[in-house]
Prior knowledge:
The complex is a heterodimer. Chain A is of the alpha+beta class. In chain A, strands 1, 11, 12, 13, 14, 15 and 16 form a 7-stranded antiparallel sheet that branches. Chain A has a 5-stranded antiparallel sheet with strand order 2-3-4-8-6, with no helix packed on it. Chain A has a 4-stranded antiparallel sheet with strand order 7-5-9-10, with no helix packed on it. In chain A, helix 9 (148-159) runs antiparallel to helix 10 (164-180) and helix 26 (455-471) runs parallel beside helix 28. The longest helix of chain A has 25 residues, at 683-707. Chain B is of the alpha+beta class. Chain B folds into 3 domains: 57-203, Beta-Lactamase; 233-325 and 439-471, Sandwich (Immunoglobulin-like), CATH 2.60.40; 329-435, Immunoglobulin-like (Sandwich), CATH 2.60.40. Chain B is 20% helix and 37% strand. Chain B contains 10 helices and 23 strands. Chain B has helices at 14-23, 26-29, 31-40, 84-94, 131-149, 154-159, 161-171, 182-188, 194-203, 294-300, and strands at 57-64, 69-74, 103-105, 110-116, 119-125, 172-173, 176-177, 233-246, 252-266, 272-277, 283-288, 302-305, 310-319, 329-337, 343-352, 361-368, 373-380, 384-388, 393-399, 408-415, 428-435, 444-450, 457-471. Chain B is globular. Classes of the chains: A alpha+beta, B alpha+beta. At the A-B interface, helix 1, helix 2, helix 4, helix 6 and helix 8 of A face helix 1, helix 2, strand 2, helix 4 and strand 4 of B.
Amino acid sequence: MSSNSFAYNEQSGGGEATELGQEATSTISPSGAFGLFSSDLKKNEDLKQMLESNKDSAKLDAMKRIVGMIAKGKNASELFPAVVKNVASKNIEIKKLVYVYLVRYAEEQQDLALLSISTFQRALKDPNQLIRASALRVLSSIRVPIIVPIMMLAIKEASADLSPYVRKNAAHAIQKLYSLDPEQKEMLIEVIEKLLKDKSTLVAGSVVMAFEEVCPDRIDLIHKNYRKLCNLLVDVEEWGQVVIIHMLTRYARTQFVSPWKEDDGLEDNEKNFYESDDEQKEKTDHRKKPYTMDPDHRLLIRNTKPLLQSRNAAVVMAVAQLYWHISPKSEVGIISKSLVRLLRSNREVQYIVLQNIATMSIQRKGMFEPYLKSFYVRSTDPTMIKTLKLEILTNLANEANISTLLREFQTYVKSQDKQFAAATIQTIGRCATNISEVTDTCLNGLVCLLSNRDEIVVAESVVVIKKLLQMQPVQHGEIIKHMAKLLDSITVPVARASILWLIGENCERVPKIAPDVLRKMAKSFTSEDDLVKLQILNLGAKLYLTNSKQTKLLTQYILNLGKYDQNYDIRDRTRFIRQLIVPNEKSGALSKYAKKIFLAQKPAPLLESPFKDRDHFQLGTLSHTLNTKATGYLELSNWPEVAPDPSVRNVEVIELAKEWTPAGKAKKENPAKKFYSESEEEEDSSDSSSDSESESESASGEQEEEGDSSEDSSEDTSSEHRSDSESASEVGDKRTAKRNSKSKGKSDSEDGEKENEKSKTSDSSSTDSSSEEESSSDSESVSESEREPESRKVAKEKEKKKTKQDRNPLTKDVSLLDLDDFNPVSTPVALPTPALSPSLIADLEGLNLSTCSSVISVNTPVFVPVKTHVLLHRMSGRGLAAHYFFPRQPCIFGDKMVSVQITLNNTTDQKIENIHIGEKKLPMGMQMHVFTPIESLEPEGSITVSMGIDFCDSTQTASFQLCTKDDCFSVNIQPPVGELLLPVAMSEKDFKKEQGMLTGMNETSTVIIAAPQNFTPSVILQKVVNVANVGVVPSGQDNIHRFAAKTVHSGSLMLVTVELKEGSTAQLIINTERTVIGSVLLRELKPVLSQG
Amino acid sequence: MLTAPPSRPSGLSCRQGRKGEVHLQPGLLGSQAQEVQTRWRPSPCFGAGKRSPTKMIHSLFLINCSGDIFLEKHWKSVVSQSVCDYFFEAQEKAADVENVPPVISTPHHYLISIYRDKLFFVSVIQTEVPPLFVIEFLHRVADTFQDYFGECSEAAIKDNVVIVYELLEEMLDNGFPLATESNILKELIKPPTILRSVVNSITGSSNVGDTLPTGQLSNIPWRRAGVKYTNNEAYFDVVEEIDAIIDKSGSTVFAEIQGVIDACIKLSGMPDLSLSFMNPRLLDDVSFHPCIRFKRWESERVLSFIPPDGNFRLISYRVSSQNLVAIPVYVKHSISFKENSSCGRFDITIGPKQNMGKTIEGITVTVHMPKVVLNMNLTPTQGSYTFDPVTKVLTWDVGKITPQKLPSLKGLVNLQSGAPKPEENPSLNIQFKIQQLAISGLKVNRLDMYGEKYKPFKGVKYVTKAGKFQVRT
């Protein structure tokens, strides 16, 4: 290896030697070593001249040659003064190459490098964003400690730049500055915090990268940006996606509770490796507690799913590991398809992916079983890929597929790649031990292999057979005899040692052969490998103990040979054995037990996968690949037992809240507002403190709970809260926003007594008298902080450290009743929030949703059914077929219209031309926005157009003519009543309030009878949203499900309530002004809910 | 010549030690200094338990097959070439280039390498990083070279070393990928063409774009702005590959279809395309170019996108495994090595099986013969064959199949005398091509363009090829 020697040269001879080596190998200058120095000098001289010339072309040439030198690893540092002068060159290419040079050598020539700084400082103010960005890039890449303050300033300015591209570069510069001067950490964290708030997809990846480098432990910086990052993720560039996903995986593991506990039962006895001891304990403690996933947790899992279809293997792997580490076990399955897809890629990608699959397949066979054949080995695969595939095949082997696999293995054993053949034999051994049905088959197969011509194969078989026999209580004397014969031919030491050991272990079962083997071995002792010698000694000792008559002399002969062996290990062993087995006056009590010591029952070895323990490393990481902890590896924490306060992720909505507050209510908000603005100022510092505060609080709450004897009741209620939050996951944002305002109130309560009073009034005035709102807040810490002042007021005799047991009834009964007294007016402070969060979502999803009032805001549809209706059958349409369906999107043609999508198919073999809508026969008031005529539709072609129809909130049919160039067809659209609605987001409180106003003749109800399994929240939700386009209202009670919508035309509210009763009945109530539609909807919902 | 580095630290106090690390030049002091340097890295200055600040890709070395490092690029401090010794060590151990482990751990660094076109791209990593991230990036670098120079070879890279350097500079900032989209890069750095290099040498202008790109800054980062063509055209190649393992008896052990749609789009302005299929349900597992709107695909199974300019891979897909895969060719084979004799017989015949009425062309059979084979004396009825006695690879270039007379190759195999006969017959790797056919039956329905007024030329081409198509014998 020629360059090795160069490298060594370099060690002794210094830098120039490298150059020498490079020169000698490259064909450019074949001059001798000594001639080189002078020629090099000369070359540099003329380069200098060229750099100082007036012509750009000469300069460019010189710079190109210099870059060439750098690329080859040659030293060009002495040209620094000549080069640095050109930093201000007008020519972009010269400039770029000078930058390349500067970045490489500035560190060595710091004083001279400073000359260039002013140029960059000027460029940082350039109106062109790319020049600003590249100046920042170079400035931050010059590793000169003196300019740290300048860099810091530049980064700060750039982080506020209008151009996202410059901000992205600022994020990159953060890491560079940090590696240059770690003392800037605090200042840099401030910049990171600022950049994390950035909404540009360009910046997100880079700033998270900087975060991971500089302050990966400052998880608190992520909270507020969590949802934004999740939502942006799909649009971030690929590399950023990888970094963000890895960071969010770690984040999720610290912030959410484990979603796995419930699934444990489903895992067919597969041991859960993640379950640490304390978790196990917790599991038994909290068995009954149903788990509901934090909506934010769900958000992450949902938003990463599309990325499984990225073209970038790193992104796919990142998502796969995210699913593996944080999603519920039942959902992990979807990653396997994508991972298998990656196996088509380059060998390097295959290598990494196969390693990860190997680790996964140990724990969860089921995931990859359908793809078993994708892991079949091809003779053209590199050996490392072959062995990994084999590993996975072994992991996937079970009773059902073992016969297929064994047939496949038979092919592999014969492979020309002997290393692979040997690995296959080990695999067969592992299958034999794992699956008892095939043990004998495998053993027979392996014995057949003993007559193989290839020694490696035979040796490997011997070793595996040895292991198998050791595991088998049933004796296989024949096999042992056969193997003893092999000793004559086989030369591989491991195999010989294995045979000897086997004979020694079973010497009493092959009494005739064993001494003979020993005799042969004694003959060849001196020429054996050390490993074999040790086994000969063992064999001798065992025979001496069982059959001393025949073997005494032989053993002593061997012991004598061993005594003078060159290897100290063998000498030691000889001495040890002699003392143990040969009785003499010095031998102690131990020799009595010699037989027991040597012929003790040995535990069978476990044939385990080398990937067995790899899963404690995060999948997809370097550490996982190397199976050692790599520098800078960040441990994935265990799930917290209790989720930290989820409200920390709420986004700042205070300013918005003011805007949204109805004018009439603004007055009441005043005190609160004042407080808010104060807290905003202190936001940075108080954030973290309130954070830790809430954590400690919740922890103490937990302790109390554990100490409590009547735990069950509290358990139940808390679980109730949780299930609520689950059903309301769609509108979770809204509620968390509300929580936010409360946590503000809470942090306020620490600020001082006086403030406390103030906040309390605002807080209490905000709380609705009617009821459920309290129970809708699901976090213990929040509810605690909130109730603390209340409970003090309500029951002063009660101590502050009220137990949870007390508190819960308090919320349900006492406090609510009391609150009635306190709050004569119910002021919906929480009202603005429902309007906010959907708009937040809407912004991010690019949907323009209009809000008609602060109370009723249109939400995104919970569910869009794919069901299509036939508009025109192809038979009656002479080959033109049309279907329509309701996409449940707000109509773009008018806000009183329902949007309808029509798919037109041409089933003829001729073009259909000029498809348009002809005469319309609409009932009174009904309006229709037609689609633009379609010029032509190719044969077999299809096209989807959308139109809007104002149905005037009736289910009357819209009839019109669908015309082509030649024909007119009368068609009609009759809307299902559920499509005349738009989902509305509202809180439970508002719902109740509105419902209260819509009683009497505005209410219709019916009783439904159905099997209890149809009354699970998810089933009800699914059935209702399937029929009608309604929004889900978070409910405080398990047995009541509420849905809200408004009619498209008139905007009247449509409130649907499903109240579960005892047994298998439920009450379906619909409140609406539009009683006709209400009763139609009731008619439609009833059969759907009652059927199975 | 040994110029001492300026202002070397005198003491080894914590702070100075760190500075020293910055000053130390492994190029000047050799790898021993390098060792020292890295050992100092987690100096107590940073506080125990904190990570030393590093970054993803530290350095890149390009190494050719004979083990010469012909290009190096460092993104921060210089890492001595001697770090590659660990790589060479692994390479020697692996015997075969294909078997060099992609990830190697050395005492102070980690080396992640890829092997492409007879070149090794070895990157030096200092901290934990997803290995696929680096591998994927290195492949992207190689792709870019391929794109720029037409080939990714040592000669091409050496000839264009300045462009390579500029590219690397743009692609990676501080070890983190910056611009990897070919459209953006091409705006920043113009690819070399013969004409341009002539013009450049006369006028003295450069490869570097003098107008600054806008794509990176817009929300369509993959497309360059201001594209103009006189002929607007959009071509799609649907290429399907059959991966299969056929066993001795001719039955299919494993078969699946993997497909890609490669696009060549030369459309002016900002066209918004949507491509629909007659039978989109066939596509089971799809991966997308970032330009594709995922939501449209999810809801309507339509590929809707604003394309990058030029050639790119739109999607790659797998056809759902429920569909039975038609195997277009069969092979009759009889290969035998006689016991105790230094020769064997070799006889293979290829015939069409399910070819959907299309001609199968470009058939090539490659066989890795066992090591004991010395030479082969064969007669092909069609095409020509070569046998490389060093690598023991037999290649038979068949060409087209004509069903009237099936092509066959038969003759004698000379074995090393005295050596045991090989136990296993070698597997046959088969390549073929069927034009105008997508074996899965996938059909593009239509391509619509929105956003621009002109009418583009559109075209779709279907090809079926053998992927990893192996016949065990």
